[in-house]
Amino acid sequence: MKLYGYKRENGAVGIRNHIAIIPASVCALEVSKRVADNVEGAIYLENQHGCCQIGPDLDLTAEVLVNLGKNPNVGAALIIGLGCEGVNTAKVAAEIATTGKQVEYLIIQENGGTMQTQARGVTIAREMATRLSQMQRSEISLSDIFMAVECGGSDTTSGLSANPAVGYASDKVVDGGGISMVSETTEFIGAEHVLAKRAVNEEVGARIIKFVKDCEAKANSMGVDLRTGQPTPGNIQGGLTTIEEKSLGCTYKGGSRPIQGMLNYADMPDKKGLWLMDTPGQDIESITGMVAGGAQVIVFTTGRGTPTGSPLAPVIKVCGNSDNFRKMQDNIDINAGTIIDGEKTIAQVGEEIFREICEVVNGKYTKAESLKHREFGIYKMISTF
Amino acid sequence: MLKFAVVAHENDNVATAVKELLQGESVRLDIGGKEHSVTLHENVAFGHKFAIALIPRDGKVIKYGEVIGHATQDIPIGHYAHVHNIVSDRGRGDLEVKEQ
Predict the structure, then answer these.
(1) Do B94 and A194 touch (CB under 8 A)?
(2) In this structure, which of A36, A105, A115, A345 has its CB flanked by the most CB atoms within 10 Å?
(3) Looking at CA atoms only, how far is residue A197 from chain B in angstroms?
(4) Least confident of A218-222, A318-322, A362-366, A368-372
(5) Omega into A258 within 30° of 0, i.e. cis?
(6) Chain A 38-57, CB below 8 Å of chain B: which residues?
(7) In this structure, what is the dihedral angle of CA atoms A70, A60, A121, A15, given to the nearest 10 degrees?
(8) How confident is the prediction along chain B (100 residues), in pLDDT tens digits per residue?
């Protein structure tokens, strides 16, 4: 299948052409939402932070907002700040603008407040919409694809069918010269030795082990059994007994190719291939981090079913069993339960997923996308002050 | 072939039910290409696990060929294996508190 995308000024390739309305802080969220609600193709990011954060935590929020603006699925961006928050609105805009895409910003305190900022924002975004609507897709190759994999609402079927099938598709993207990314450090606990063996060198292997040990130490510092929250109550009800079991099943979704490196939250890979990213196991924060890292499309496996989407990247849902595929038919795109039913092989469903990725790259809406599921959350290192 | 339970790796000592399985049922299993049969001592719900070899108390529970935790009591063949008789070896902040 031929692939088509939007070629950006800096050589990056988008598979969507969104206008991102980015609030620098939670104080600018409502105005950002109102601007986006009034302009076709505009999507706001539900940023709950950006103020009263300190040190590396504030820096991380700013970096996430910048990198989301840089995501190639964004054709143009409008940053809206209140004016007195910790995240610097003008700086966020300037950094996104280094990609060559159109970026504008507005400060609410300098524009007369809610209604006048909204009016100016709508004017700017409407002009962006007209321009982006005239852009055409052009032919791209598999090496331009950056997919990220996620799992949520897992049960024991996730690791037996959905994850290995997605792993098959991930290997195809990597073999075609593209990028695939796996995250959720919590869900590497108990499987880190398996992942470290696949690292391109010893240094990367040691880094994987260190990230996982640090994550486990942070959880242990709470003085409780991790099983109070991971596996989740739903995971346990679905048959998952320990974090090790969940993790080992999770790793299958990253296929079998060598691991190039393990990135910090929201950082971008500097070469092609399979990557890991340090994120929490919470799906929304994990996806937000990988989209900030540049992912264009998310493939999301589940056993119990989940509706989650993302504002900037289409999310393809793959369910591990036929029962829950039927029970959650509003939200699931592909049934990998056919593997457990004995009707299809992992490779056959893997091909089905790969074909779906190609169609979604070319513009097909996923269920999460059609239903406007745009869940958003930025990982925080420490509490707000 | 319609599967009733899956053994992910030939070294595993648990199998995962992929349909609702009932006490007394004899379940056929494919373990590394060889056919085995286990009679269930109790009901095992869809997605849940049962022992396919005796797992002694404090013994390792193996799935995907890797350790997923240890048994808190003997888990005989055909018995349901889950959070009531398996604990995790990882993320045990509760044990670190006890050590202090």
Answers:
(1) no
(2) A36
(3) 14
(4) A218-222
(5) no
(6) none
(7) 30
(8) 457 999 999 999 999 999 999 999 999 999 988 999 999 999 999 999 999 999 999 999 999 999 999 999 999 999 999 999 999 999 999 988 776 6
Contacts with A342 from chain B: Cβ below 8 Å: 1-3
Number of domains in chain B: 1
Q: Which domain holds residue B65?
A: 5-99
| Partner-chain residue, chosen from A157, A226, A248, that has the shortest CB–CB distance to B47 | A157
| Rounded Cα gap, residues A76 and A87, in angstroms | 20
- Choose the closest CB to B48 out of A189, A226, A239: A239
Of B1, B45, B88, the CB nearest to A242: B88
Whole-complex ipTM? 0.95
Q: Which fold, A18-134?
A: Rossmann fold (3.40.50)
Nearest in space to A151 (alpha carbons), one of A302, A362, A369: A302
DSSP A10-56: TS-EESS-EEEEEESSGGGHHHHHHHHHTSTTEEE-----SSS--HH
Mean pLDDT of A242-249: 95
Query: Which stretches within A71-191 are classed as H helix?
Result: 89-97, 114-133, 156-157, 163-175
Contact B91 A226 (CB under 8 A): yes
Q: Is A160 on the interface with B (CB under 8 A)?
A: yes
Instruction: Mutate one of A154, A155, A156, A158 to test the B interface: name it (highest B CB count within 10 A).
Output: A156
A221 in B contact zone (CB under 8 Å):
yes
Tell if the CB–CB gap between B63 and A245 is shorter than 8 Å. Answer: yes
* Cα A291 from Cα A295, distance rounded (Å): 5
Q: Which one, of A129, A141, A206, A232, lies nearest residue A179 by Cα? A: A141
CATH number of the domain to which B17 belongs: 2.30.130.110
CB of A208 less than 8 A from some CB of B: no
Q: How would you write chain B as a 3-class SS string?
A: CCCCEECCCCCCCEEEECCCECCCCEEEEEECCEEEEEECCCCECCCCEEECCCECCCCEEEECCEEEEEECCCECCCCEECCCCEECCCCEHHHHHHHC
- What's the token pair of residue A22? 């980015």
Distance from CA of A352 to the nearest CA of B (A): 21
A272 half-sphere exposure, CB direction, 13 A CA radius: 14
pTM of the model: 0.95
Residue A95's Cβ-side half-sphere holds a number of Cα atoms within 13 Å equal to 17
Neighbouring-strand partners of residue B61: B69
B49 to chain A: which residues are within 8 Å by CB?
A: 156, 239, 241
In angstroms, what CA-CA distances link B43 with A26, A156, A268, B73, B81?
A: 50, 17, 48, 19, 11
